[in-house]
């Protein structure tokens, strides 16, 4: 395993401490979450089942023998575990590198504790070096892109990609994200936007950071 994969695995092991037995567990998407699912598969907690944020995660959880239930059935959750592409000191996030941020945001919103796992490379003082993913309705994608240009952004359509919801994703460079809550509200108000991958209004509650010197945990 590479150093980076070892760090992801270490973060996943630390996140496991937040799993609550007897309940449904929210599970995010991405390579760090894949390590978390591997940890779940090895330790087999007595959870009721999982609520998944993507088809890829659902398939991996089912292969590991876990029940996957719809959020509509499971209701509000105690714990949601996921990764992120960037994290600020206030635990605001950029998510959606894997294109799953719509379902991720819905699950985060109804979870008491959002546990986010990252490696040190994803910690930034100000969000925005990572291009901001925005899921859009196909017929509105050019209109949304023009609105983003007016905000100072440089939008790029993600080539040959559709989200699990069947929508295109625009990755936006160059936005000023010094006030991420305000930018999130502004982008949410553009007609045609399904979900912006800014998690500032609902940031992480617990941040697990894995680095060369081990794992640290920060709480909001
Ligand atoms: O937001 C996400 C998917 O939509 C992921 O959490 C994010 O892209 C991080 O992925 P990885 O753990 O592979 O670096």
From TrEMBL:
Active site, UniProt feature: 104 (proton acceptor)
The protein's annotated pathway: Carbohydrate degradation; pentose phosphate pathway; D-ribose 5-phosphate from D-ribulose 5-phosphate (non-oxidative stage): step 1/1
Catalyzed reactions: aldehydo-D-ribose 5-phosphate = D-ribulose 5-phosphate
Entry keyword set: Isomerase
Name of one Pfam family that matches: Rib_5-P_isom_A
Entry annotated with the keyword Isomerase: yes
UniProt GO MF annotations: ribose-5-phosphate isomerase activity
Positions with a binding annotation for substrate: 29-32, 82-85, 95-98, 122
EC number of the protein: 5.3.1.6
InterPro entries: NagB/RpiA_transferase-like, Ribose5P_isomerase_typA_subgr, Ribose5P_isomerase_type_A
GO cellular component: cytosol
Any one biological process term the GO annotation gives: pentose-phosphate shunt, non-oxidative branch
Record SUPFAM superfamilies: D-ribose-5-phosphate isomerase (RpiA), lid domain, NagB/RpiA/CoA transferase-like
Gene3D superfamilies, alphabetized: 3.30.70.260, 3.40.50.1360
Residues spanning the membrane: none
Function comment: Catalyzes the reversible conversion of ribose-5-phosphate to ribulose 5-phosphate.
Subunit structure: Homodimer.
Homology family: Belongs to the ribose 5-phosphate isomerase family.
Protein name (record): Ribose-5-phosphate isomerase A
């Amino acid at each position: 395993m590479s150093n980076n994969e070892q760090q992801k695995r270490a973060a996943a092991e630390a996140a496991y401490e937040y799993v609550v037995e007897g309940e449904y567990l929210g599970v995010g998407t991405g390579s760090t979450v894949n390590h978390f699912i591997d940890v779940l598969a090895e330790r087999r907690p007595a959870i009721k089942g999982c609520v998944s944020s993507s088809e890829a995660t659902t398939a991996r959880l089912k292969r590991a023998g876990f029940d996957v239930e719809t959020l509509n059935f499971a209701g509000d959750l105690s714990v949601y575990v996921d990764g992120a592409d960037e994290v600020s000191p206030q635990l605001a996030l950029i998510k959606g590198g894997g294109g799953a941020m719509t379902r991720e945001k819905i699950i985060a919103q109804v979870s008491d504790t959002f546990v986010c796992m990252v490696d040190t490379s994803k910690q930034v003082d100000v969000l925005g070096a990572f291009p901001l993913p925005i899921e859009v309705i196909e017929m509105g994608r050019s209109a949304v892109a023009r609105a983003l240009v007016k905000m100072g952004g440089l939008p790029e359509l993600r080539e040959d990609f559709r989200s699990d919801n069947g929508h295109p994703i625009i990755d936006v460079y160059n936005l000023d994200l010094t006030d991420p809550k305000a930018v999130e509200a502004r982008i949410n108000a553009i007609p045609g936007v399904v979900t912006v991958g800014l998690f500032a209004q609902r940031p992480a509650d617990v941040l697990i950071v894995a680095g060369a010197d081990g794992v640290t945990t920060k709480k909001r």
